[in-house]
Design a protein that fits this description.
By secondary structure, the chain is α+β, with helices and mostly antiparallel strands. It has helices at residues 15-26, 54-60, 95-109, 147-151, 218-228, 230-236, 281-302, 305-334, 337-345, 351-359, 363-372, and strands at residues 2-11, 31-35, 48-49, 69-76, 81-92, 112-115, 118-122, 125-128, 131-140, 163-173, 179-185, 188-195, 199-207, 239-241, 247-248, 252-253, 260-261, 264-266. It binds flavin-adenine dinucleotide.
């Protein structure tokens, strides 16, 4: 039976929750970091860690070990391929490795890791399946979709027309070798990149309507898109599965969300979901923790709760909303193979760098976040 009283209770120990826990524990606050899972654990994700996350990982002392460097992006269309370089290297790192490293970092900083299912949240605390945690501040870092979104009556939960699902599997084979490849199919897209240990991750996102008739069988869906798109068939033929089955996700709904709900500070995907094609969701989750930490500290220290909540909500909107909007525009193109091919024929060489600028933070903004957190 868990009974705790802390300064901050954080529900969810993904990249957002664990980063926030480490930052607040380093500031000397008592922190409970709650997750239903034991770590290390696998998770649906493309496992492409954007260069946006590197200064944060470095400041936290996270060593990414053998995670391969990814320096280029290749968009593979039906008739054309478009390649561009990243301004800084990204890394291919499994969630088994990264989430565990961040979770340990939070615990090393002094956060108390609690393995339990959170069953109710309010601004004063969290109810667990085996106890309660009272807290002066509660942070919601439970990811893109959870029971609390319904409990808090968040508007996006009711959206049935924009539901997408993710699928991921690890493979062995040719390897992507320093490149992330993006492939298009009707109603979705997928990305291919290497992670540590000689593994290649193939991970995609698809609109729910495309899954009708497959009865939850990802094998049958992947066979279908391989038959539809030649580049996909050629790519999959280079790999053998290294995992028994596919990992899938809760629904992914790209509707705007508030960064503070009923006095709960939302972190990471719970505060806003950027399209996965950017490979920037984990970086943004970590950045939102950096943005939130000083506002939460302010709420704890001087008690002007409203000012801290408004401050975080406004800063969050300013930093992330336009990036999310741009990500959706490009996803629209990438999930329509014929349209993508027409766009690739224009040979607009600056498209990649332009898109990167629109969906990522400036280096000096990240540096300021790191120093201010
Ligand atoms: C198809 C797809 C591909 C993607 N590919 C990439 C990529 O390549 N690169 C990238 O940067 N991002 C990618 N993303 C996005 C990325 O996965 C998320 O942005 C990131 O995981 C958000 O981190 P988070 O900490 O907010 O939440 P999460 O990582 O989702 O963590 C939430 C945590 O909360 C816990 N939790 C939830 N509910 C409860 C509860 N009731 N009680 C206790 N614990 C709870 C969960 O166990 C989990 O550990 C992808 C997303 C999708 C859908």
């Amino acid at each position: 039976m868990t009974t705790l009283t802390v300064d901050v209770a954080i529900v969810g120990a993904g990249p957002g929750g664990s980063t926030l826990a480490a930052l607040l524990a380093r500031r000397g606050y008592s922190v409970a970091l709650i997750d239903r899972d034991d770590f290390p654990r696998d998770k649906l994700c493309g496992e492409f860690l954007s260069y946006d996350a590197m200064p944060i990982a470095e400041a936290l002392g996270i060593d990414l070990g053998g995670a391969p460097y990814i320096e280029h992006c290749r968009v593979v269309g039906r008739g054309r391929t478009y390649a561009f370089d990243f301004p800084h290297p990204a890394r291919g790192v499994s969630r088994m490795f990264l989430d565990d490293a961040l979770h340990r970092c939070a615990a090393d900083a002094g956060a108390q890791a609690v393995t339990a299912m959170a069953t109710a949240v309010s601004r004063d605390g969290v109810t667990l399946d085996d106890g309660t945690i009272r807290a002066r501040v509660v942070a919601g870092a439970w990811g893109r979709w959870g029971r609390f979104d319904r409990q808090l009556e968040r508007a996006f939960v009711r959206d049935r027309s924009h539901r997408n699902f993710g699928f991921k599997r690890h493979y062995r084979g040719a390897g992507a070798k320093g490149v992330i490849e993006l492939y298009s199919f009707a109603g979705g897209y997928l990305g291919v990149n290497d992670v540590e240990g000689g593994i290649t991750n193939i991970c995609g996102l698809v609109h729910a309507r495309r899954l009708q008739g497959h009865k939850g069988k990802w094998d049958s869906f992947v066979e279908e898109i391989r038959a539809e798109e030649e580049p996909l068939e050629a790519m999959y033929a280079r790999y053998e599965p290294a995992q028994d089955g596919f990992l899938s996700s809760e629904p992914v709904i790209f509707r705007s969300r508030s960064a503070v709900e009923e006095g709960i500070f939302m972190i990471g995907d719970a505060s806003g979901v950027i399209d996965p094609l950017t490979g920037n969701g984990m970086a943004m989750a970590m950045q939102s923790a950096l943005v939130a930490a000083p506002f939460i500290a302010e709420a704890l220290d001087d008690g002007d709760r409203k000012r801290s909540e408004d401050g975080y909500r406004n800063r969050h909107t300013e930093l992330f909303n336009h990036r999310i909007a741009w990500s959706r525009r490009v996803a629209f193109l990438l999930s329509r193979p014929a349209l993508l091919d027409a766009a690739l024929r224009l040979r607009f060489r600056a498209a990649g760098p332009f898109f990167l600028r629109k969906t990522r933070a400036d280096r000096d903004v990240i540096a300021k976040m790191v120093s201010g957190s």
